[in-house]
């Protein structure tokens, strides 16, 4: 159909603009609301108090009767090269005008040409006469999906005109970097932007973005790794540290992902050029870019070129010529580094809006940009949109018959519930405490503290089997094999360093071969006397959860409901397997959770495994409740930009299939909600003339939501510094017949139920549990854990 | 010439590397030889020669001039600094400017250049423009070296598909004799010497035809014109600047300071890290101990090459690490910067 051709043409246009994959990042054209009758009229909630909010959205305005004219451009004789096609067409700027967007086939103009078909004549360099036929194919109204894609392309053009540098999907300002010399980091300030059709208007959603760049080459990083880990573990360390990272090169404006390191190659090695001749890297870089490669012993990095998801060959890169961008996991876990970074990247609301204002001022002040906008007949509202949101009432926390109020501003009830009996405390009658010799004191301190804090929680704790080991992975494993019995409730290990291999080995053994809950503690966290009681309390709570205990609950008004959470972990280093974590509630109070996970094997879709998970979850639910649930809520996290269509068209039908397979007379009400943490929208409460983060429980379901979706935002957590990020919820399937207000409230309630944090978190607890599970399996276990553990939160 | 023989050739002649690349390589070689600091490309079109030249480390000023602004704009962003140029500012300074204008007009922005290239330019000039061209380039700009390339019409019969001229926009194509007499006359008139060469070798046995592209390299015979002389040529600016990029450079105080601070603090951090971990070593993880063997892998480790004299050893006192300034300056990277 014509519609399809149009959009594929536009994607070409955006590809030329260098954006990488041909994917619709904004999930345009996935219209899920139309199938849900009960939210046709309204999808807004009503409870809570009103709060005035502003946001980072700016209205796009066009002159009245604005339209975009789409033309097809044909050549006779046929011209292949896109550049030639452009050059031939642009010889006729007097006819088509100076303002145009052309991808080689489709031409967009801001005004209509005199006749429907225009014939133009050009001559090529070779003196060949070419007839160009420009035919009007479409008059696009401002809200058409093609127009929206077009706006985004034009906006990126503007950013380029402002001399911003494109890295990945966003644009950054290179001329005013923030330098953090302690860590050899540089931070560039930039902007993310997208223009979309929102509830009533087309708006630009712009946000401040920071790009972390490293003032060192990949070779520098290899050097420092070499001096850190030594010869033996050098290659492994490089692979771990570097694979998956994005690099910039010294000679072109492209980014590459490191997919592999070729240790058998070096810059003296040769490669085959496109014309078939062989050339060494040293020679090539000298000839092409006048770059001398100094270290001829360095290995070669391999980056795969992907197009439409398929590998299309690979590119070799020289470490010395590549600069790292972004942060590694290791850097992320470096507390000091993150603290130093946060000073620059965590902007408080006022400052964030000020930086954004600067971008808009650039746009407003730049003559060329304004000219381009004028030529297309477009302009922006330079003041951000404001509207009212709602703050829903705080949830009460119940623990063993007692109800707690806490300050809703802080979204935390650690203090209030300290020393109060748990809903279900599991006795610890038989347990192991394993430590190395140098941690003997630490182990005793932990033990004494645990004995002090557990009685008031109602946890009965016996003396453990204290086992001293030498600090080696094999010894730990041997001790586990010899000393764990079927009666063992839990194993606690005190580890000296955060070395992953030891942790992985312990977890792998105790999650698969010998299914016993385990708790690993770093000796360092126990070394501060002033915090030991707090730490011991947290450890006691966590141990209790891992053994099947329950801590607190909130009021869940729905009966016979099963809540499901799904999240994915994508392994970027080894084998590139994906893992889906799946959890489902087991009881009325949603305090107990069943879990499984799917380790994707080659050529298998994750969704097949998820179906099996749902079946076993239903079986378990019915075992616990003596009936099947009449309502099922699925909170689906881990859906990437542009994957919504797949989810709606493949995954949801699979859920329905699965329910059908349970029994012909079984038809529960199903609600599927896509949860998205990474969204561009930010909300600011206008309080006392300044901008603040909105309080927890802020719900937004107007103005900045999408008309074709049943969606809303909730700000559930608080942040100490920077701007709070709202979570986006998109109800893609719903036969619950519940009012939007109730779905919003249920979602917010579930954000209170994550037992590893006595406070409100960013996503519903099942999503966070599923994330924890998938992460543990993906990082440490690499296969499905033993099902014996499936009714406990062993993965916390 | 035997007609059949000639036709056979029209089938075969194909240059490897392509002729345009050979012309660019010729300019690049010339730059390598004379190391000019300021280079201007007249008729720079889509800027591909300028893009190649920006990698030549001797060049500090690059300018392009073309009569068509659109073709320059098409790929001018390739002349902008790359993110890495900001991350690791280079030693040299580099400014790239594109001007929209005609080689028949004088503009003071074209003064003071060491090398001016006119690759496949003159054959596009109308007669009136060609007449003014020598005065503008040799008389007014008066660079040390001028390179002019143009098609050799004697070669045309060997090229397939060429009817009258090689490009419809060509106003003329000269034989070797025509080009050489024009060049010699121009050189004589403006006190330059000229040497003739070319790229695109003729087929064996037909050497008389000459190169496919004929090139004249003009070298000024009189010494550098001083600033004072140039200021005697007051001319109003007539070109329009369409693009200007100033590359980050260590010659700029701002970038130099940042670079020095970055290196000093980072290296001091490493020293601190080493000293601190040395203190803790005895209590360290036993699995790690055996790993501190001498390295087999021979990376040229910059820090490893540190020559630190005994009397300026950094030391730890409490929670602070003292690093003598002399040590700081002995870091190769810092040393190179200061």
TrEMBL record, chain A:
GO biological processes: germ cell development; meiotic cell cycle; regulation of translation; regulatory ncRNA-mediated gene silencing
PROSITE patterns, alphabetized: PAZ (PS50821), PIWI (PS50822)
Gene Ontology MF: a single term: piRNA binding
Alphabetized InterPro entries for the sequence: ArgoL1, PAZ_dom, PAZ_dom_sf, Piwi, RNaseH-like_sf, RNaseH_sf
Keyword set includes RNA-binding: yes
Gene3D superfamilies: 3.40.50.2300, paz domain (2.170.260.10), Ribonuclease H-like superfamily/Ribonuclease H (3.30.420.10)
Cofactors: Mg(2+)
Piwi domain ranges (all copies): 490-782
Subcellular location: Cytoplasm
Keywords, sorted A to Z: Cytoplasm, Developmental protein, Differentiation, Endonuclease, Hydrolase, Magnesium, Meiosis, Metal-binding, Methylation, Nuclease, RNA-binding, RNA-mediated gene silencing, Translation regulation
Residue ranges annotated for the PAZ domain, each copy included: 217-326
Gene Ontology terms: cellular component: cytoplasm
Family: Belongs to the argonaute family. Piwi subfamily.
Matches recorded under PANTHER family: EUKARYOTIC TRANSLATION INITIATION FACTOR 2C
Protein name as catalogued: Piwi-like protein 1
Organism: Cinclus mexicanus
Protein encoded by which gene: Piwil1
Automatic annotation (TrEMBL), chain B:
Needed cofactors: Mg(2+)
EC number: 2.1.1.386
GO biological process: piRNA processing; RNA methylation; siRNA processing
Molecular function GO terms recorded: metal ion binding; RNA binding; small RNA 2'-O-methyltransferase activity
The reaction(s) this protein catalyses: small RNA 3'-end nucleotide + S-adenosyl-L-methionine = small RNA 3'-end 2'-O-methylnucleotide + S-adenosyl-L-homocysteine + H(+)
Keywords: Magnesium, Metal-binding, Methyltransferase, RNA-binding, RNA-mediated gene silencing, S-adenosyl-L-methionine, Transferase
Gene Ontology cellular component annotations, sorted alphabetically: cytoplasm; nucleus
Family assignment from sequence similarity: Belongs to the methyltransferase superfamily. HEN1 family.
Protein name (record): Small RNA 2'-O-methyltransferase
């Amino acid at each position: 159909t014509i519609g399809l051709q149009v959009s594929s043409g536009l994607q070409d246009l955006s590809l030329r603009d260098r954006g990488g994959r041909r994917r619709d990042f904004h999930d345009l054209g996935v219209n899920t609301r139309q199938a849900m009758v009960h939210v046709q009229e309204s999808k807004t909630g009503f409870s809570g108090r009103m709060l005035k909010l502003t946001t980072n959205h700016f209205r796009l305005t066009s002159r009245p009767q604005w339209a975009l004219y789409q033309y097809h451009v044909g050549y006779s004789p046929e011209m292949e090269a896109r550049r030639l096609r452009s050059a031939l067409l642009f010889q006729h700027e007097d006819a088509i005008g100076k303002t145009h967007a052309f991808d080689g086939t489709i031409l967009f103009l801001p005004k209509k040409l005199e006749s429907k078909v225009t014939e133009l004549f050009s001559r090529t360099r070779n003196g060949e006469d070419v007839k160009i036929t420009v035919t009007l194919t479409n008059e696009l109204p401002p809200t058409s999906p093609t127009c929206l894609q077009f706006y985004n392309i034009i906006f990126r053009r503007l950013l380029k005109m402002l001399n911003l540098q494109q890295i990945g999907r966003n644009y950054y300002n290179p001329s005013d970097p923030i330098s953090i010399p302690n860590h050899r980091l540089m931070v560039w300030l930039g902007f993310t932007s997208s223009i979309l059709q929102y509830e009533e208007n087309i708006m630009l959603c712009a946000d401040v973005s920071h790009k972390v760049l490293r003032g060192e080459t990949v070779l520098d990083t290899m050097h420092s790794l070499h001096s850190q880990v030594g010869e033996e573990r050098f290659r492994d360390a490089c692979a771990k540290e570097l694979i998956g990272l994005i690099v910039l090169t010294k000679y072109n404006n492209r980014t590459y992902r490191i997919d592999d390191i070729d240790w058998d190659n070096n810059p003296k090695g040769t490669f085959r050029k496109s014309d078939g001749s062989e050339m060494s890297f040293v020679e090539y870089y000298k000839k092409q870019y006048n770059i001398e490669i100094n270290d001829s012993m360095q290995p070669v990095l391999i980056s795969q070129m992907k197009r439409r998801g398929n590998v299309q060959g690979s590119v070799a890169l020289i470490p010395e010529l590549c600069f790292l961008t972004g942060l590694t996991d290791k850097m992320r876990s470096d507390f000091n580094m993150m603290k130093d970074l946060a000073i620059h990247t965590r902007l408080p609301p006022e400052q964030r809006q000020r930086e954004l204002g600067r971008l808009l001022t650039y746009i407003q002040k730049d003559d060329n940009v304004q000219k381009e906008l004028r030529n297309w007949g477009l302009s922006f509202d330079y003041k951000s949109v404001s509207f009212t949101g709602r703050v829903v009432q705080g949830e009460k926390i119940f623990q063993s018959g007692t109800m707690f109020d806490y300050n809703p501003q802080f979204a935390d009830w650690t203090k209030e519930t300290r020393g109060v009996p748990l809903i279900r405390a599991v006795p610890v009658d038989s347990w192991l405490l394993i430590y190395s010799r140098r941690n003997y004191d630490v182990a005793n301190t932990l033990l004494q503290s645990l004995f002090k804090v557990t009685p008031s929680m109602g946890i009965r704790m016996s003396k453990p089997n204290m086992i001293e080991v030498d600090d080696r992975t094999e010894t730990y494993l041997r001790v586990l094999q010899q000393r764990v019995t079927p009666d063992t409730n839990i194993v606690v290990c005190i580890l000296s360093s955060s070395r992953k291999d030891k942790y992985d080995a312990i977890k792998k053994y105790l999650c698969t071969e010998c299914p016993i809950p385990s708790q690993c503690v770093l000796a360092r966290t126990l070394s501060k006397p002033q915090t030991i009681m707090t730490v011991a309390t947290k450890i006691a709570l966590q141990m209790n959860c891992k053994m099947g205990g329950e801590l607190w609950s909130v009021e869940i008004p729905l009966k016979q409901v099963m809540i499901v959470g799904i999240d994915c972990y994508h392994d970027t280093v080894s084998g590139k397997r994906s893992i889906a974590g799946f959890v489902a509630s087991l009881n009325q109070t949603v305090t107990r959770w069943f879990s499984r996970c799917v380790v994707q094997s080659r050529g298998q879709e994750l969704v097949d495994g998820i179906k099996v998970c749902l079946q076993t979850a239903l079986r378990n639910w019915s075992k616990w409740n003596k009936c099947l649930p009449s309502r099922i809520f699925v909170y689906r996290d881990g859906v990437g930009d542009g994957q919504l269509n797949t989810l709606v068209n493949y995954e949801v039908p699979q859920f329905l299939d699965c329910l059908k397979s349970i029994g012909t007379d079984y038809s529960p009400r199903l609600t599927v909600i896509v949860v998205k943490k990474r969204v561009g929208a930010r909300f600011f409460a206008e309080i006392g003339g300044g901008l603040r983060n909105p309080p927890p429980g802020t719900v937004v379901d107007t103005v900045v939501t999408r008309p074709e979706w049943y969606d809303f935002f909730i700000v559930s957590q608080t942040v100490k510094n920077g701007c709070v990020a709202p979570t986006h919820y998109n109800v893609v399937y719903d036969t619950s017949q519940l009012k939007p207000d109730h779905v919003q409230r249920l979602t917010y309630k579930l954000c209170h139920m994550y037992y590893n944090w006595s406070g409100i978190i960013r996503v519903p607890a099942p999503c966070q549990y599923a994330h924890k599970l998938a992460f543990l399996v993906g990082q440490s276990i690499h296969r499905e854990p033993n099902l014996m553990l499936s009714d406990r939160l062993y993965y916390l | 010439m035997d007609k059949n023989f000639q036709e056979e050739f029209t089938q075969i002649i194909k240059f490897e590397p392509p002729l345009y690349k050979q012309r660019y390589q010729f300019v690049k070689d010339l730059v390598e030889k004379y190391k000019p600091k300021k280079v201007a490309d007249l008729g720079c079109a889509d800027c591909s020669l300028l893009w190649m030249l920006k990698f030549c480390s001797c060049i500090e000023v690059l300018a392009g001039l073309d009569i068509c602004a659109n073709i320059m704009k098409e790929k001018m962003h390739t002349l902008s600094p790359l993110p890495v140029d900001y991350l690791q500012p280079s030693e040299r300074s580099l400014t790239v400017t594109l001007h929209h204008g005609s080689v028949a007009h004088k503009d003071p922005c074209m003064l003071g250049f060491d090398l001016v290239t006119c690759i496949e330019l003159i054959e596009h000039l109308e007669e009136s423009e060609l007449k003014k061209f020598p005065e503008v380039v040799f008389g007014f700009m008066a660079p040390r070296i001028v390179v002019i390339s143009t098609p050799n019409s004697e070669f045309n019969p060997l090229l397939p598909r060429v009817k009258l001229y090689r490009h419809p926009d060509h106003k003329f194509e000269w034989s070797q004799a025509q080009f050489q007499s024009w060049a010699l006359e121009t050189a004589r008139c403006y006190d330059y010497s000229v040497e003739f060469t070319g790229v695109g070798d003729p087929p064996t046995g037909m050497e008389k035809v000459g190169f496919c592209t004929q090139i004249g390299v003009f070298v000024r015979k009189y010494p550098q014109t001083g600033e004072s002389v140039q200021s005697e040529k007051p001319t109003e600016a007539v070109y329009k600047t369409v693009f200007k990029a100033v590359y980050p450079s260590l010659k700029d105080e701002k970038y130099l300071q940042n670079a020095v601070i970055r290196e000093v603090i980072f290296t001091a951090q490493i020293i601190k890290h080493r000293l601190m971990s040395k203190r803790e070593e005895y209590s360290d993880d036993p699995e790690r101990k055996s790993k501190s063997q001498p390295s087999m892998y021979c990376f040229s480790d910059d820090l490893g090459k540190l020559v630190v004299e005994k009397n300026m050893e950094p030391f730890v006192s409490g929670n602070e690490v003292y690093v003598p300034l002399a040590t700081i300056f002995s870091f190769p990277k810092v040393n190179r910067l200061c």
